[in-house]
Amino acid sequence: MATPISAPTVVPEPGAIPASLLNVCFVLFVINVSYFPAAYFSHWWIYDPNGLGIPTDFVNVWAAGRLVLDGHPAQAYDWDIQKQVELALLRQDFTGYFAWHYPPPFLFVASLLAQFPYAVAFIGWVSASFVPYLAVMRAIVGRPFGLLLGIAFPMVFNNALVGQNGFLTAALIGGTLFLMPTRPILAGICLGLLSYKPQYGLLFPLVLIAASQWTVFFTAAVVAVAMAFASWLAFGTESWQAFFHWMPMFSQAFLTEGKATWWKLQSLFSLVRYFGGTEQLAWIFQWVLTASVAAGLVLMWRSRVSYSLKAAALAAGTLLTTPYLFMYDMMVLAIPVAYLVRIGLATGFRRYELAALACALALFVSFIFLGEPVGLGATLIVAGLIQGRAGPWWRREPAPSLIAAVSA
Fold first, then answer.
1. In the 8-state DSSP scheme, what is residue 47?
2. Residues near 306 by beta carbon (within 8 Å), at least 6 away in sequence
């Protein structure tokens, strides 16, 4: 008797790339590849028609690096000092702040980039972080189509436009998951490097313990501690003191006062605030979701669900469990999508899957034009597709260890 999992019709045959998926990816590929050269030479990107720097997120990276090179790394965390450096760089004023709030180890990256002129650093950062992201997408999908999918992913536009670090975050999470079954030390290195954005690594310790992935766990811990120690040697105790001093103010500004405006954040927390809910109510919803996702992932990773689905679920879960989630960080959603595509190419796509992915795409596109907090909806669509593939995994016999195979 057929199970509910196998009931949906699959189209096309396994191994074939659906024409609709290929065509949509090609169109998005053309847009992403052609826009930025045209925008740069038309003065829509990095510099405006007057030769002034366009205020955008990357300015805080270059400014923080400049302060490091000038011998004042701790001052990168001071919003007013940081803004003065940014104003001098851009040569025009802007509302609010582009504050630096990353742990001191990321100052290594900032100081490297600040050695170059601003435009070179901006383009170099976007390009250099794009390469490992593409490599991970190619590896997960398992065929060259992964490159097209990676370039076509709609958040590529948002991330490159503002010079953010979404490519790096997606590459590290994807690299951790792809390498875990066969190269646990390399996977641990990727996870340790992810400590530059610790909010996206909170679920990994729980899952690694549940799956008895001790090599990954301890390698990641060693790498994270080594990075912190190296930054202490390079930038001094003052940089860490400044980081911990300014973090409560940053949290107050963005999660209590909504300085970034709630529509820019894509978490359940921000969605509750966007619709007028109190901070307390938003935290209740967020913590319930976080606890539910964490418990579900622990159970899933102890089950006999295929590794591809486990990896996809963990990647999607990282986006559901943090209240601080901007649209450029939605680049991480490319990782579970890549795993779903891998499964679909191996076994055939269910008839509703491509339509559901199209809905997620439509939400992303609507954000570009309407500026609504639609990221949570896109994440839930992808999470629902993963759940649909996994089926009633909570009823299955527990797996004795992590499944080594990375096939669907």
1. B
2. 343, 403, 407, 408
